[in-house]
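Dear support,

Our group has been running a series of protein-ligand predictions, and this particular one with zinc ion is the one our PI (initials K.S.) wants archived with full inputs and outputs. We had some confusion internally about which version of the output was final, so please treat the block below as the authoritative record. The input we submitted was:
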Amino acid sequence: MFSARSRITAQSSTTNGGTTSTFNTDSFGLRYPHRLNFYSVPPKEDITIEDFEIWAIDRLRVLGEIESSFVRNRSMDEMKRVTQAQCKKYLPLNANSAVAVDRDAERRKDHVSHFVLRLAFCRSEELRYRFIKTEMMLFKLRYDEHADELNAFVSSLGLGFNSVGSDELKQYEAELRAASIAPLHTDIGKETFYKVRWTKVPDLIERRKVFLHNGMAYVHSSDQSSMVFQAFQANLEKQLEQTAKALPRLDEDNRILPILENLSQGFIAGVPSEYASADETGDGVTADMIDEMARKHWPLCMRNLHDTLRKERHLKHYGRLQYGLFLKVIGLSIEEAIVFWRKAFGNITDDKFSKEYKYNIRHSYGLEGRRHNYPAKSCQMILTTNQPGVSESHGCPYRHFSPDNLEAALLSTYGSQGFTRNDLPEIMSDVKSSHYHVACTRVFEITHGIKKGEGIGGGESVTHPNQYTARSRELEKASSGDGMVVD
Amino acid sequence: MTNTNNDAMQVEDDASSPEVMRIFYQRIYPFKSIFTWLNHEHQPSKLFKYREFAFTLPGDVYLRYNSFLNPEDMKKQVIKLNPSRFEVGAVYSGMPKDKKTLRPGMFQPTLRELVFDIDMTDYDSIRTCCSGKGICKRCWGFIAAAVEVLDQALRTQFGWKHLLWVYSGRRGIHLWISDEEAMMLTDEQRKAVMGWLEVIKGGKEQVKKVNVRTWKTFASNTARAPQPTSGETDEKKPPSAEGGRGALHPALLAALDSLKANFQELILDDQDCFASEDGWKVLLELIPDKTIRSALQEAWASDSDKSSSDKWIDFKREVKLHLKNAPHKKATLTAAMEDIILQYTYPRLDAEVSKHRNHLLKAPFCVHPSTGRVCVPIDPSKVHDFDPETVPTVGQLLRELNEVTDPENQHHSDWEKTSLKPYVDMLDKHAANLIAERLIVKKEEGKSNYSW
Ligand SMILES: [Zn+2]
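Confirmed final output from the archive:
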């Protein structure tokens, strides 16, 4: 068992938030008495390296979805819906009242995963900015739930909000009433207002939602959340900078660094999905079905590999690997795979094929060597490992093609599926801002006649070529089931 | 040229002449005062040394990321490069002149005065005396009204004290706020200030440009909203619905108070904005009641000589009449009237200038290349008396110098002998206040996070 404890705490020795009560037990007998966490105090127990990585990846899935919601300009409601769905799957956080659930375990995972991602994302200004923005949104979305348990949480933070005394309330009664959107009690003394420097509540100032006098904003208790959010952000910003400064000390552990490296790459690529097993829709795929399936269901990276294979009757090593594993997960059996590849490599002898390629194909199916059943490569792997050289065809076209070539490829590949020149600017702008998975998702929507923002279902973005294909085939099944498309 | 006093144009009046500008920088420009104002103390600090200056050179060459070690260095460089004007930017985390050798992460804007820019262009649709690039004492009234409101709001609401208003050299005004808090604002906070202040929104096609009413509704999250109290039955109606009641935010009520007088004097009496048919048709479109609108339309179309002031009286009378039959419309019509006053007189801000720390703004005392006028500070309490046509021009200043000084005995602070003196004194006094405050802050070092 590996202890990550010293690593996570090392960078935060200077923190001293008001959350020491986090580890007290309360009437529910919980070690984490509150559902929400300000993450002022790092986790103090041992963490296995498996949990270290898996929990972080799970959190990354949630943050990744939030980030693509920003990029896709989703409405707040949509973002909430999509994020809650992801949270439920990967990072559930139940209220104290949910006594049947192991709330401490959920909260511990939330706590630990946040701190692991801090390590991964503190390394550059850009990553810090994106991390803060998405964590901030996650906190806000969660804050809106289970309002009845919020007060206890907020007072545990000890943020020191000063409430306005009754004399002052009377003095500014007219202004406070005029500035308030919510109706106030006829006796102003019964209302709670906090007095804070306006810089702590810029969002309330921007919307002209408070009474402002001499630099002090008079914040009604119903707007307390703004102050909490601001404090959360300020806290996180400060601590991330401290973490960044302390990070070099981590270099001593060579098991953690690659994980962190992967995690921060994951943010760029979208979060890896695991597609280690065949699709549910994938039974009985045979070698002679591949051409047609490719035309209808492949994402651009696989279309590029397929078309290259057909044109050149050959693929280089990494191309074979990327495409072969993809086909395996589609449901192409080992027997069919050998048929497929034998036919594809037109200009070599049976002998050469058996010696040089067959072993590798069987190997990738886990039938040779270490007998490891290799999963297909996720978008993240494709984007970040083994960058293609000039004569190689693997990789992600959105990232690895020149803009001109990408535009041409999109038009020629998807023209017959409704992709037009008018769609190019949007895609190219996503590409330009390095949101490759967003570009790919948008192409999926366009070529499948799906409403913008729906993605591959429920607003999810493409993070794996097999996921793209699986969804495409599902849609086809659904529509042919309705008798819409028969061919 | 708006200056008609000089029949014959003389050499020194040509602000585009490099020779004129060089003499101006050598003998008149108050480098020392500008330095002290930007630096907040006598010894050059990061506030000055890490500050970006951008030069506009003849031939539209724009030179960014200049920085100087001290006022002498600045004067030397300015004279050498002889820009037609220069701008002041942010204080960075390193010296701007070393930008190329610094890692990108090590060169970030950190501090910057909060700045505002008000330009006559934004009033072109309502002013009647001038158009385009022109400006006169009369249309300065719009700027004066804006200064009155902003100066008051920034001092009483935000609590800032160190405000420097500067004439932009042609038809607008700049404001620089140097309070510690204002210097340290993030871009997000600057954006918030603009959200707070901005009232006039919408382009040419949008007739009603004031939409600031808070239409009271229950907070969406009832779990945390206070219970409604008796007598306070609230509508969830959209702002356009009749019978809705929109309170004006106290900050805007305060603005409205000072704008009411401006509206009468400037809009009705001086500019006579509703005299022309185009003018009063806009006014009609801002009235949210069909009966009143058609009554006024009929009256005004048949009497083309009626003054704006009389038309406004007509409007008020029609409202009163109408309320006799429909008293429930009082709030809506009062709101409409107030909104009209705001639309014609509330400050029109160029928000983009203020939102970003690294935005550049022309330095005070630069010369406007086409008018030759110097960008002089303005006392906000006397802004209504300010006349842009009496601001000293570079030509006038050089002539004054020639009259009083012995060419053999030139001195660096020759501005003292010119009509620029009261303006430089104004900046020096402003800077002295900053220095005094900085001393207090320094004494409390440790308590303050004012780290520069
Ligand atoms: Zn004029």
